[in-house]
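This section describes the prediction task in plain terms. A model, or a person checking by hand, is given the sequence of a single protein chain and must write out its three-dimensional structure as a string of tokens. No templates, partner chains or ligands are provided. The sample shown here is typical of the held-out split.
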Amino acid sequence: MKVAHDDAAPPAGPAGGTAAAAAKPAGRGGKGGLQPPSWFALLFLLPALLLLGFLVVYPIVYSVVRSFFDAEGTGFVGLDNYVGVFQGHDNLVAVRNTAIWVVVAPTLVTIVGLVFAVLTERIRWATVFKLVVFMPMAISFLASGVIFRLVYEQDPDKGVANAAMVAVHDTFAGGASYPGAGPRTGGGQPVRPGADGVSVNVAAPVAAGQSALVPLVRVKPELLPEDAKPAAPPPAARPGQLTGTVWFDFTRGGGGAPNRPNAGESGLPGVTVQAMRGSEVAGTATTRADGTFTITGLGSGTYTVTLPKDNFTAAYGGAEWLGGTLITPAIIGSYLWVWAGFAMVLIAAGLAAIPRDALEAARVDGATEWQVFRRVTIPLLAPVLMVVLVTLVINVLKVFDLVFIIGGGDPDASVLALRMWTESFGGGNDQGAGSAIAVLLFLLVVPAMLFNLRRLRQERS
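The expected answer:
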């Protein structure tokens, strides 16, 4: 029995010791361990954590605390600063504009980016197109604001937007405008002001087959068109016609007989002339380069020759982009110019990842390109579109540069981010109110950030 017991015992000696050592797991952080202790990793992370705490955590905590105190920072005011965000005209305008930005800008940029991304798959010069559209992303918001500040200049000679609008308007409207021009004052003049004080009427009635002279003064020389020619006498009128001349009755250097075309006097082209019978317009004509006109298709009887007031109103100068109700849409337009390339690149990457088999299967089933796009492409792109949309929402909540540069301090263009700066550093000198606005913006951004993070985690899983 003793021998059997000895046979069953484990072997002794060096071999037995080595086996026991091999069976023992390496201790974590021991002398024979391969992994460093956890505190050693924290040692390397400590500089980054300190920097993060100093630059991010501390400002957030300080802003939250500061938002409960008054402008001097000594008196506790509770939630008064938060309530004040929604009081006062300027604050309410900022809240309204921020809501417009959040709803309109991300949606518009996403739609335009989607259109551009689809176009890049169907045009030959896709790379060049992407480069041109994405190029504004390389420009700072400050430079973009300066660019669009010039684009939206009111003077059509300086602002590109109004220059284009004036060109289109003049193409379809035609005619010319001579603001401030009118007849000579005093009795015995062949023309006189109309009942509205702006239009011009020929004093004596004119019958069909006759001519009328319409002299005007107070015409600004710089408003004379380049194609204006010297004033000419009225052409001979045939039956059913009424002719005449509209000219600038002023001779440089003096001389010349008044109320008749003289050498050196300029005709006024582009003037609208009407033959009125009572309150009805019987015929209309536009003066030629030498100021002459011919109204045709008139019946017998006499007419009052009238130059409508539209001839004497200021020329169309485009829209007032940087004032009133257009300033916020104008700034959103500049934001679209900058960020459309960002949306296009992300959506184009999503389009490239869509299985082509699904698209081809829909086409084989008889779906049109629009149906394929609406029922196949859009649903498959929905996660990408949502990420782009939420990212832009986060971005527009913080928009400041474009509004500050293009708006030029106009309260009608203000948003919450700009109000935060104005209240704290831009003249308000109330860091309590500014901190309250900053905290509200932070609270608005956090849900969107969490939504984006959740979406990214779902895609990874």
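For orientation: The beta strands are 191-193, 200-202, 206-207, 211-216, 242-248, 272-277, 280-286, 292-295, 302-307.
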